[in-house]
TrEMBL record:
CDD domains: NAT_SF. The keyword Nucleotide-binding does not apply. InterPro entries: Acyl_CoA_acyltransferase, Bact_Acetyltransf, GNAT_dom. Signal peptide: none annotated. Pfam families: Acetyltransf_1 (PF00583). Residues 4-164 form the N-acetyltransferase domain. GO terms for molecular function: acyltransferase activity, transferring groups other than amino-acyl groups. This is Acetyltransferase GNAT family. The keyword Transferase applies. Keywords: Acyltransferase, Transferase.
């Protein structure tokens, strides 16, 4: 793993975070969004939630290597022990242990918040993300078949769950 520092997300990070997200929009099938988004739209899509952890990973040069966050799975109190995960790494930083470090930090914070389950929804076209989650203890719990279309390709939404 390359040396990184995990820091809480702050307003100054949002432009760089949106840039990472937009790289995936433009060059991969990892997002559900087909066109790049503004910082304001990015913030809306991420649903940052007070009290829930959100981290950026910065390398030794201070460059943003990735980010991850948890948000409520649902506003309904019955689901207070469940959070939804989002994580993206900058180009060239996958497979270097950064995503694992972000996930471990989020999981540690989740336990302190009383969260017992983390869910992730992943496109069936995003094989790298599926491998990442499954290798780190997430289990596929279901899929909505053919409900999405991105760049003319249909995809399933796969529900992954990790319980502590």
């Amino acid at each position: 793993m390359i040396p990184i520092e995990l820091l809480p997300v702050c307003a100054d990070d949002l432009d760089e975070m949106a840039g990472i997200f937009n790289y995936y929009v433009e060059h991969t099938l990892a997002t559900y969004t087909e066109t790049p988004v503004s910082v304001e739209r990015f913030v809306s899509l991420m649903c940052f939630s007070p009290g829930y952890p959100a981290f950026v990973a910065r390398d030794s040069d201070g460059a943003l290597a990735g980010f991850g966050l948890l948000r409520p799975y649902s506003p309904i109190p019955a689901f207070d022990r469940t959070a939804e995960l989002t994580c993206f790494l900058s180009k060239g930083n996958t497979g270097r242990g950064i995503g694992s470090a972000i996930l471990q930090a989020l999981e540690s914070e989740a336990v302190e918040l009383g969260i017992e389950t983390i869910v992730a929804t992943v496109s069936s076209l995003n094989e790298e993300s599926l491998r990442f989650h499954l290798a780190r203890g997430f289990v596929e719990q279901g899929r909505l078949v053919g409900i999405g279309s991105r760049n003319g390709r249909c995809f399933d939404v796969i529900y992954l769950q990790k319980t502590f």
